[in-house]
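By convention, each integer encodes one residue's backbone shape. The lines below illustrate.
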Amino acid sequence: MPTLGAFADGSGEGDAYHRVVVDRGDPLVRWRFVCPNGHVDWDPTNNHIWCAACAQLHGVEPEYWELFDKKTGETVPWAAVDLR
């Protein structure tokens, strides 16, 4: 029998995402948060991020709904990002 799991969307108090402040003006922070492919050349657009470096690669989708935190090794959902 398959294992069932519950997934949270972050909208409830009990499953709210931990907010992560990303100050794009700080060079150290800019290099810390990257697209899932490791590029720093991303921009916010329409409630997600768009990576210019990924857009240049053949067959790679440049739109993402999460960032990768190189310091912690974890992904951060776009809904939890507080962009400054």
Q: What stands out?
A: The longest helix spans residues 27-32. The radius of gyration is 14 Å. The longest strand covers residues 42-45. The mean pLDDT is 84.
